[in-house]
Structure formats: structure tokens, C-alpha cells
Amino acid sequence: METPLYTAKEFASLLGISKAALLKMEADGILPVPQKNDGMREYLPHDIPTYLKLLGKPPLLSTKRRQIFLNFKGGTGKTSISAFYAFRLAQLGMNILMIDLDPQGHLTQCLGIDHSSFEATLYNVLIERMEIEDVIIDTKMKNLKLIPANLDLSPVELSLTSMNARELRLKKALAPIQDNYDIIIMDASPSIGLLNLNGILASNELFVPVLADFLSYHGLKILFETLTTIEEDFDFLLDNIYIFLNHFNASHNICLRAKEALEKHYSNYLMKTIIRQDTKIAEAASMGMPIHQYAPNNRGSSDINSFIKEIFPNLPIAF
């Protein structure tokens, strides 16, 4: 992952103004003048909220959100989509915290971060009572932070078992910092366990990626049964549940049949946006690069954009 930069033309278009208007307002002292590199102005994503405010436009988001990507079935492409989604939100100016809940650390790897580059995970927070600020690490974007994971997180399930309020420890740990971020995005392992339960109870929105096959369809049934139990046991209710199709290939009959089944039984939760099958997504993830940097004009990038527009239809920027 590299630090994303906008040209004056790109930045002006994002803000919904012309390049000439942007440069004039900078010359008039209405807008700040960015740093230059080889004589060219370079605009950074984390500057977007400041420019929107100076232009008299509404903020990117009116409410803070905490989101978790989860499916009890593995192989749905959950981690790569959550990583690319988070990067794109940060690229659009939002202040993002990602949390890797999987001891395999795939989210951490998708962001191009080496497992040996950090010493603490959520294990130290949930079990050893380390302050959560002390495990947050920087990325190459000022407004994208990460709580990473590696195999050191593995003993957390066993250690949580004997602890008081074991299901709510993550929610409690996040409380002091959650207002510092527009969105907190968690990537969970494909399992039913105490760590994922902590993630659900610390969230107010759930994203469920599914493949267009009937094994994924069956996995949804188990997930919703689990959510019903959680709602009853903890008097807890998610604000939103989003189911989305991933790796979709409209030329396959089984994909079309599975889509019809989802539309019939989960229409209240199924997103209109479909993430189409795209080898560039897998290639980007393997290289630790967001799809919007690896293949910005590819259909994978386009689908992530559509995904974001469906979740946030009132963003005051054009992308």
C-alpha cells in the first residue's frame, strides 16, 4: 500500500468544483495551499474534511459507525473486500480504524504490513488490560489505522473463557477511542467463538459476504440463528445487516439460482451491489495492495465504489 495522492483536477472533481475554482480559492486564501512536489500540488485524502468544511458542505458522515465483516463459512473473500473497502473509505477522506480479529492475520497482510513489525494484538488488550491506543499502528495513510493480528492472538479464546464480562471486553476497550474514528471496521475469522462474539457486540452493523452457492446459503441460516440467540441473551440489536454477493459470475446458472434464493429469503438484507468475479482482487490482496491502487480502473474497483455508494448514499463528494 502506498500513500494515495490527488492532483488538483482530481481533488476539485471530488469536492464537486472545478480546478479553476479550487486554485482561485487557494489564491484568495479561502482554501489552504497544499505542499508541492516538483512544482505540482499534491492533495492528501485526510485533507478532504477540512476542505468540505471551508466550502460550507456537510461532513462526510453524520454518525459514527462500527462495522464487522463476518461469515461462518470460509472462502467468501471477506478479508480482501473489508480491507479494500476500508482503504477506499480512507481514500475518500474518512478517519478509519481497522481491527484484525483473525489470528491468521490476513487483514494485516492485505494492507501490506509485515507480521514482525508489531509486538501487540487484541490479546494484550482483552486479556492483559493493555490500553487499546497502545496496540494501534499507523499505515501509510494518516487517516487509516490498524489493530493488527498474528498468531499471538490465538490463545485469546481460551483465556477469555474464565474472565468476567468476557463477551463485552472489546466493546468496553473501544469506548474511550470510538469517537476518534468515523468508522471502525472489524474483520472476523470464519468461526463461532468468544472473540467474534466480542466483535458482534462491539458493532452496530454487520456485513455478510456470500458466494453464489448453496453452501453459503446454508451458512447464512446458521449465522442468523446465532444472531437471534445473541439478541435474546444480551438484549442486543444490530442497526443494519448487509448481505452481499461476492465473486459473482452471471454466466453460471448456479450463481443465478443462488441469487434468486437469496432474493426470496433474505430480501430485507441483500444489497443491490454485487462484487463480480475478478482475478485482480485476488492478485491485489496477495501483493498487499488495495484494488484501487493495483487496478483502479478495473471492475473490482468499480464494484467497491458502488458498494460504498449504496451504504453511504448521502456522501457530499463525487467519486
Write out key terms for the chains shown:
single chain; 319 residues; alpha/beta; Rossmann fold; 2 domains; seven-stranded mixed sheet; two-stranded antiparallel ribbon
Note down, in words, how this protein is organized:
This protein has 14 helices and 9 strands. By secondary structure, the chain is α/β, with parallel strands linked by helices. It has 2 domains: 47 residues, no CATH class; 247 residues, P-loop containing nucleotide triphosphate hydrolases (Rossmann fold, 3-Layer(aba) Sandwich). The strands form 2 sheets. Strands 5-6-4-7-3-8-9 form a 7-stranded mixed beta sheet, with helices on both faces. Helix 1 packs across helix 2 and helix 4 packs across helix 14. 42% of the residues are buried. The model has no long low-confidence stretch (mean pLDDT 93).
Quick recap:
This protein has 319 residues and is α/β, with parallel strands linked by helices.
> What is the helix/strand order?
HHEEHEHEHHEEHHEHEHEHHHH
**Total number of beta strands:** 9
Please work out how many helical segments DSSP would assign.
Answer: 14
CATH H-level name of the largest domain... which superfamily?
Answer: P-loop containing nucleotide triphosphate hydrolases
Structural class designation: alpha/beta
Oligomer state of the chains in this structure:
single chain
Q: Which geometry do the CA atoms define? A: globular
Largest sheet: 7 strands, mixed
Number of domains: 2
Helix content: 25-40%
Poorly predicted residue ranges: none
What is the arithmetic mean of pLDDT?
Answer: 93
| CATH class descriptor name of the largest domain | Alpha Beta
CATH architecture of the largest domain: 3-Layer(aba) Sandwich
Rg from Cα: 20 Å
The strand line-up of the biggest sheet is 5-6-4-7-3-8-9
CATH topology of the largest domain: Rossmann fold
Give the termini separation: 20 Å
Strand-residue proportion:
5-15%
